[in-house]
Amino acid sequence: MSGEQTQASSETDIETETAPREVETGADAVVRSLENAGVEHVFGVQGGAIMPVYDALYHSEIRHVTMAHEQGAAHAADAYGIVSGDPGVCMATSGPGATNLVTGIADANMDSDPVVALTGQVPTEFVGNDAFQETDTIGVTGPVTKANVFADDSDTVGTDVGTAFALADRGRQGPTLVDLPKDVTNGDTETTPGVPELPDTYDPPETADAEAVSAAAEELVRADRPAILAGGGVIKAEASEALRSFAKEHEIPVITTMPGTGAFPEDHELSLEIAGMHGTGYANMAITVTDCLLAVGTRFDDRLTGGVETFAPDAQIIHVDIDPAEISKNIEADHPLVGDAKAVLGQLADAMPGSPSTDAWLKQCETWKEEYPMEYAAPEDEPVKPQYLVERFDEATDDDTIVTTGVGQHQMWAWQYWTWKVPRTWVTSHGLGAMGYGLPSAIGAKFAAPERDVVCFDGDGSFLMTCQGLSVAVRENLDITVVVLNNDAIGMVRQWQDAFFGERHMASEYPWVPEFDTLAEAFGARGFRIDTYDEVDEVIEEAMGYDGPSVVDAHIDPDENVYPMVPSGGDNGLFALTEGQL
Amino acid sequence: MSRREEVQRQGLKGPSPEERRRPIGRRNSQGIRIDPAVAAEPEPRRTTISAYVKNEPGVLAGVSGLFHRRQFNIESLTVGPTQNEGYSRITLVVEEPDPGIDQIKKQLNKLVPVVHVRELDSDPVACELVILKIDGDEPDKVQAITEMYDGRTLDAGPETITVQITGTEGKIDDAIDAYEQFNIREIARTGQAALARGAEETARVDEKHT
Ligand SMILES: Cc1ncc(C[n+]2csc(CCOP(=O)(O)OP(=O)(O)O)c2C)c(N)n1
């Protein structure tokens, strides 16, 4: 298969080739369904079994972005979904194309990101014969999708895609997949699909039970040490404004989970920033001794809770979630409020009989902020500290700048040291922790928000996993900046080896990393390098100023580790501030 | 504002773990707040869950995959068509502590083709079937046991006798015990099918799903 692009290459071609078409084939119906859903971009890679759908796309206004690897297509679609709020669409051929998508689909599933994946499949008559590039994509992706479906009829394939779109978008968002056998997409049909509709067996809840809301409101007002935990569901439900005004009105401090970061502005005095394994000391103190936790749109992931035995053990838990299965899954909810986060926050605001008296508690939180500052040691004559780079990029860019990352220490520093103010700006692989997420997600984010700056903080290890995406960024002339926080190591692994494996650095040091600035130039991007503090500001200015993709190879202090740290399954209140405390 | 300090130091500043304020309470491994002095881990219990589902390809794979993936303890699973075309009933016997049973119901409900899920009360109308193939040396004795358990002989030859017993799980267990005195060559058991007792509906579904 040649990897030729389906995009018409010049303006004139587009005008003559994209006249609206009648639906004649299953593939036309697939594309029409995407159009009906308002899809503007699709990320994918061509291949035998998906060719009919690409051919139908040729006649559509939908913009296809050819990616260098299907994993990147799925991550790009995921980031597109995070930034825009609407499902991102990715597409791949059968077999290896589909299996390459799996990491990105699994990531979207963990983080409840709206993604629609379309995969080619061998013709129906060959299914089950181990045909060339046949994989049981439905079987493989079942455990990592919200729903998936094997399209078996050219007349209904358009509706299948519409349903997949609606399911990805509505209720608790998530990835869906439609497997498209080539005979079904090639087959004739006269059925033009309508707008996406949910199946009649799926009915997401809106508002919570009114009595439960009143009981929760009374609990909250009675509390001495209340705290709000804002999860990713707050952002997904567009409930950040509602949460902000609720917290301010009742003067309740706010902690965010990793996916909830951006739901509440970190420069506000009520913000305790982030909790969990690498959360701030003050957030982990507060979440440990709170007596009433209003948790909104969070699934109480173990990286947040540490050991459940010691998670908020004195707290009445008010849990707001659109997914009833999240209630009491990991942490028992004393007040389960099932519904859309925005709607339920509205109900709760109306039901509050007063406000809790939080003066003493807020003072305590302030004291913790003073006692556990995030100040890091960074002497001038040592290699540059990664925290400083994150802070300087933050200061040099607008508040709505989108930040993506790989997975590892750099991801944690970006999370800790960027001051988050705006929802949908923090784009990372939370639940799956997929190295390689950074660059492809930056590409997807840029397509979703072309007018905004996009910075990707990557690790040297993570960047090596998907740096082929630079070819896409260069071809599409995407103005994104990749900052490789280069420590010549897969640092997070090395940090754990230092702490838990007797400093035996087995397979975690990378003395062979390429020069990333030179690598960038080879792709046709701009490359920069930072070794010392006095180069930092100049490089930031040049890299951010360059109108196209750039890579900053920032050689950071290889000995720097991430703190605070709660060891896996540990007690949040006993977070370590140095290795000696682990 | 940068939090950089041009100093030499390991890690971050702040009171050490021993100096910090500590909570009083505790949760158990299920995330439930407990009195650390009294509470024990919740005990598993056996119960029957009934799911009314749309007949879509993969629905059974979805259900069994779910149980495997989430480590739910499943004793038996049966599936078959209902009086409504296009819909099946899945009956599951599970053994879990209460939070697990709650999760099973909710996770099943999340599967798109699942229309309705409920736990049947402790005394549903429940039945299963077993087929046993037994050595044929003592046909009279085998026949006596078969009659005692209201069973039927399905096949009898010089070498083997094959019988069927239907009834509750307990009755079937007892019957198998009784046949143990002969040589049981093979057993095939269906798992339990169940409906709610009396006039009560097993699945409350609106008309679009009948
Ligand atoms: C795909 C994948 N493989 C392996 C891991 C395990 N892992 C977690 S963090 C990490 C190190 C990442 O190294 P790098 O990208 O250089 O970032 P650093 O920690 O050095 O900042 C590894 C290997 C992972 N998260 N994802």
Molecular structure report:
The complex is a heterodimer of chains A (582) and B (210). Chain A has 582 residues and is α/β, with parallel strands linked by helices. Chain A folds into 3 domains: 17-186, Rossmann fold (3-Layer(aba) Sandwich), CATH 3.40.50; 210-371, TPP-binding domain (Rossmann fold, 3-Layer(aba) Sandwich), CATH 3.40.50.1220; 386-563, Rossmann fold (3-Layer(aba) Sandwich), CATH 3.40.50. Helix content of chain A is 38%, strand content 15%. Chain A has 23 helices and 19 strands. In chain A, strand 18 (526-530), helix 23 (533-545) and strand 19 (550-555) form a beta-alpha-beta unit. In chain A, helix 4 packs across helix 18. The longest helix of chain A is centred in the first third of the chain and has 16 residues, at 96-111. Chain A is globular. By secondary structure, chain B is α+β, with helices and mostly antiparallel strands. Among the domains of chain B are: 45-119, Alpha-Beta Plaits (2-Layer Sandwich); 125-194, ACT-like. Chain A, domain 2 (Alpha-Beta Plaits), CATH 3.30.70. Helices cover 21% and strands 35% of the residues of chain B. Chain B has helices at 59-69, 98-110, 139-148, 169-179; strands spanning 4-5, 26-27, 33-34, 45-54, 74-81, 87-96, 114-119, 125-135, 152-156, 160-167, 184-189, 193-195. The longest helix of chain B is centred in the middle third of the chain and has 13 residues, at 98-110. The N and C termini of chain B lie far apart (63 Å). The model of chain B has no long low-confidence stretch (mean pLDDT 94). Strand 13 (376-377) of chain A pairs parallel with strand 1 of chain B, so a sheet runs across the interface. Thiamine diphosphate is lined by residues 406-410, 433-436, 459-462, 485, 487, 489-493 of chain A. Thiamine diphosphate (TPP) binds at residues 406-410, 433-436, 459-462, 485, 487, 489-493 of chain A.
Task: Summarize the model shown.
Chain A is of the alpha/beta class and about 575 residues long. In chain A, the strands form 3 sheets. Chain A has a 6-stranded parallel sheet with strand order 2-1-3-4-6-5, sandwiched between helices.
